[in-house]
Amino acid sequence: MDTTKQVGGSHYQMQYQPVVFINDQGLSYVEGNIFKYLIRHPNKNGKQDLEKALHYASALTCNFNQKRSFYPILGFVTINDMTGRHDLNLIYSFWKAINTSDINEVKSFKYLLEDHIDTYERLM
User: Fold this and answer.
1) Nearest Cα residue to 87 out of 33, 36, 42
2) What is the distance of C-alpha 75 from the center of its chain?
3) Which of 17, 58, 60, 94 has its CA 20 to 30 A from that of 100?
4) What is the pLDDT of residue 42?
5) Cβ-proximal residues to 55 (8 Å cutoff; 6+ apart), any chain
6) Crossing angle of the two packed helices 103-118 and 47-57, in degrees rounded to 10
7) Nearest to 68 by CA among 107, 24, 4
8) Which residue from 97, 116, 118 is spatially nearest to 106, judged by alpha carbons?
9) What pLDDT was estimated at residue 60?
């Protein structure tokens, strides 16, 4: 499988494809889907993609065994020139939530995602 190009659509026009990042970081099915929807929402289905991310986030729990550094997500953002995105705090909050044993970080991410959905029209 050629993971350097996107088949269909233009919502992942990125040097470092989300599917490669998800695989490289060993994200679970739930984590991978949340990440996918967070990354693509500005260029595909907008608020609906955030709602899908929230749906998957309802199954998100603390991951007591996985501790990834913050560098991979910073690298993904930098390589794909995403530093100007208005929702970077949401992406960073997600990363922190899946790499913690603190249930409050998971709750914080969910609340932040709900807030983004509630204010989506204003943000975009």
Assistant:
1) 42
2) 14
3) 17
4) 86
5) none
6) 160
7) 24
8) 97
9) 81
